[in-house]
Write a structure and sequence with these properties.
Elements lengths: L1 H22 L4 H15 L3 H12 L16 E3 L2 E4 L1 E2 L3 H29 L7 H19 L5 E2 L2 E3 L2 E3 L2 E3 L1 H27 L3 H9 L4 H31 L11 H12 L2 H30 L5
Antiparallel strand pairs: 1-2, 2-7, 3-4, 5-6
Helix pairs in contact: 1-2, 1-6, 2-6, 3-6, 4-5, 6-8, 7-8, 8-10, 9-10
């Protein structure tokens, strides 16, 4: 459930933002295609879309005739096979070094912003380059972390090695991402249109391109309108993942349903499901409320 929810929220945000911006494009064809995308997906039941994606994946050929679009990637009825990093303990040290560098860079950027208010702003990018690139590379060299990919290969009637994405997970993730992105696109479009037109004109008067005005001026102001309804869509995506039971993906509802059928303890099973979804939803709400306060406009 968490694997679907976290990845789905990230992908739906990216796709929804792009579609929402495209809906406001001056290109007539792109704007109409984005509008058709939104209306088609919002007016179609999610369960029907999950059945569509799952049925589409079931039409893939068997492993021996698997589609091979790019090197190391195979598409078959058994799922999607991808190359995977041969994980070693040394890679954990590199990941920790990158995490430390990221936290330190964010702290330095905040300190730099405070000094900028006082009139002097130290540069951020050299520190970020040293902490987030040079430091992990040094740890990589010291620990001797190998960079070796485990590439899947056909042996007998199935593939061995690499990373496997099951058809059920791929169908569920694709359906949730595309369905939720249609709603996020409308939220993004409404947030951008909620920013005063004068902000666009002021950016153009400064000689900024339309893309720079959108990225540097309009979107930061639109976030205060986008974040609250965006939180609701994240919660809907998490709860909609329970429809995975219809296509055979073993998430929390499916496992609990099997357990209560075997034990007859329905109250305990339903209680566990409620506790899990409540915990995930409250965690998302707390984080998004914190982020909303962080991006809110502050009166001077």
């Amino acid at each position: 459930t968490l694997k679907v929810a976290v990845v789905g929220c990230v992908l739906a945000t990216i796709v929804g933002t792009l579609i929402g911006i495209t809906r406001l494009s001056r290109n007539w064809l792109l704007a109409r295609l984005a509008a058709a995308y939104v209306e088609l997906l919002r007016d179609t039941p999610l369960l029907l879309q999950l059945f569509f994606w799952y049925g589409l994946l079931q039409t893939l050929p068997p492993p021996r005739q698997a589609l091979h679009p790019i090197p190391g990637v195979f598409l078959s009825i058994r799922g999607i096979k991808l190359p995977a990093l041969d994980w070693q303990p040394a890679h954990a040290g590199v990941l920790l070094a990158f995490g430390f560098g990221l936290i330190a860079t964010i702290s330095w950027a905040r300190l730099s912003a405070r000094r900028h208010v006082a009139g002097v702003r130290p540069p951020v990018w050299p520190i970020a380059l040293a902490l987030m690139a040079a430091l992990p590379l040094v740890v990589w060299a010291v620990l001797g972390a190998p960079f070796r990919l485990d590439v899947p290969a056909l042996h007998g009637f199935n593939f061995q090695g690499g990373l496997t994405v099951s058809p059920e997970y791929a169908a569920l993730l694709t359906g949730l991402t595309i369905y939720t992105s249609a709603y996020i696109a409308e939220i993004v479009r409404g947030g951008i249109q909620g920013v005063a037109r004068g902000q666009w004109e002021a950016g153009a008067a400064l000689g900024l391109s339309r893309g720079l005005v959108l990225r540097l001026i309009v979107l930061p102001q639109a976030l205060r309108l986008i974040v609250p309804p965006l939180t609701s869509q994240y919660l809907n995506l998490v709860k909609n993942s329970s429809l995975a039971v219809a296509i055979g993906y073993q998430e929390i509802v499916s496992i609990a349903d099997t357990t209560l059928n075997q034990t007859g303890q329905a109250i305990e099973g339903v209680g566990i499901i409620m506790a899990v979804y409540l915990t995930i939803s409250l965690s998302i709400s707390l984080f998004m409320n914190w982020y909303n306060e962080h991006v809110a406009l502050v009166e001077r």
